[in-house]
Write a sequence for this structure.
């Protein structure tokens, strides 16, 4: 069965650069969630979208923005990157309001 | 506010030993609790949901509302159980999943 797809899987950027992470949900899933997992840390909720509208916001820095498109894929845009942004960024998808989130493999961002 | 606490970071046992991974929660409503597992270099995946009350890969977890706990147990650990385990709480009000800090289970031969 198709799973959540994230691209790229690995990304290396320098400080103050920008990065765009992409997430393709499972077909017919209309809700997308983004999480940040720092080294040795638990996944921290960043933001979620339902039907292209932001539905909830967590600890997402102002330097980050995200959106969901008409095909339900989502992009997380990160600007003015800092060393502390180095982390694994997970995307998850679910049908609206459903408790089970299906996670992607993550994008490992390294900021040097 | 919802909170999930996993008090230990690492549990190392020998194969065949019993395992208990602790999880406590704080939530004002009726909680929905889960255990997620992350094997090395793999994505997070759901292991157990408290409502289902089933045993997956020999693991069970019982919700104890009096102690606000949802500990994960397995009577006889296997080497393939070595992974990172996260306890998580779901809030239906805002569709938010809150994770604990996770615990690394290491099962030695």
């Amino acid at each position: 069965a198709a799973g959540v797809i994230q691209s790229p899987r690995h990304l290396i950027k320098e400080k103050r650069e920008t990065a765009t992470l992409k997430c393709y949900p499972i077909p017919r899933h209309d809700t997308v969630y983004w999480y940040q997992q720092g080294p040795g840390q638990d996944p921290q909720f960043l933001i979620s979208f339902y039907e292209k509208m932001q539905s909830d916001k967590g600890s997402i820095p102002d330097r980050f923005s995200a959106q969901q498109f008409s095909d339900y894929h989502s992009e997380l845009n990160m600007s003015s990157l800092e060393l502390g942004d180095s982390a694994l960024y997970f995307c998850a998808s679910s049908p609206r309001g459903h408790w089970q989130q299906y996670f992607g493999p993550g994008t490992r961002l390294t900021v040097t | 506010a919802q909170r999930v606490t996993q008090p230990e970071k690492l549990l190392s046992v020998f194969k065949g030993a019993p395992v208990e991974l602790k999880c406590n929660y704080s939530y004002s409503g009726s909680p929905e609790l889960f255990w997620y597992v992350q094997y090395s270099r793999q994505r997070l995946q759901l292991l157990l949901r408290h409502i289902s009350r089933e045993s997956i890969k020999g693991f069970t977890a019982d919700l104890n509302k009096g102690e606000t706990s949802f500990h994960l147990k397995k009577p006889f650990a296997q080497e393939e159980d070595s992974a990172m385990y996260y306890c998580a709480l779901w809030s239906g009000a805002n569709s938010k999943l809150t994770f604990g800090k996770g615990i690394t289970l290491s099962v030695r031969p």
